[in-house]
Amino acid sequence: MWELFNPDIYAYVKDEKIWFDPQSGEKLSRCPFLEIEKPRYPTSPTRYTCGIYLDRPDDCRQYPSLISEMIADECEMIETVDLNHPKRAQDALNTLMRDSR
Ligand code: SF4
C-alpha cells in the first residue's frame, strides 16, 4: 500500500524490509519517522512522536503486546506499579490494545 499511496514512506523500504536509507540503501539504526515533539515549555521533558502515525507499520500498531516486552525494551511507558503487578498491568494493556490486535 505504501508503494502505491505513500511513496515517501516506501522510499525507506528495501526487499520488503524497513528502514533503509533511500540514497545509500544502508539499514538505518532508527526509524526515520521518529520525531521530537515541540516542547510546550522550556523545561518540558523531551517527547517523541510518530511522523507517520496513521500510516505506521502493523508492528508499530500492535506494539506493545506484552508487559515483559516493554520491560525488555525499557519502554518509558512502564511504571513502577506495573512492575509490581505485572498480571494486572498485562490485563490493562490487553484492554487498551484490544482494537489494535
Ligand atoms: S511508531 Fe513505528 S513508524 Fe512511528 S516513529 Fe515509531 S517506529 Fe517509526
List the helices and strands and how they pair.
Blueprint: H1 2-5, H2 7-10, E1 13-14, E2 17-18, E3 34-36, E4 48-50, H3 58-62, H4 67-72, H5 80-84, H6 86-96
Antiparallel strand pairs: 1-2, 3-4
The structure holds iron/sulfur cluster.
Explain this structure to me?
It is a single chain. The protein contains six helices and four strands. The chain is of the alpha+beta class and 101 residues long. It has two domains: 1-55, no CATH class; 63-101, no CATH class. The strands form two sheets. It has a two-stranded antiparallel ribbon with strand order 1-2. The protein has a two-stranded antiparallel ribbon with strand order 3-4. A hairpin with a 2-residue loop joins strand 1 and strand 2. The radius of gyration is 17 Å and the shape is globular. It starts with a helix and ends in a 5-residue tail after the last helix. The mean pLDDT is 92. The site of iron/sulfur cluster has 8 residues, from loops.
Shape, per Cα inertia axes: globular
Backbone CA Rg: 17 Å
Structural class, from helix and strand content? alpha+beta
Distance between the termini: 19 Å
Q: Per DSSP, what share of the residues sits in E-state strands of 2 or more residues?
A: 5-15%
What series of H and E elements makes up the topology?
HHEEEEHHHH
Bound ions, cofactors and other small molecules, one mention each: iron/sulfur cluster
Classify the oligomer: single chain
How many domain modules?
A: 2
Percent in helix: 25-40%
Task: Give the helix tally.
Answer: 6
Main attributes of the structure:
101 residues, alpha+beta, two-stranded antiparallel ribbon, 6 helices, 4 strands, 35% helix
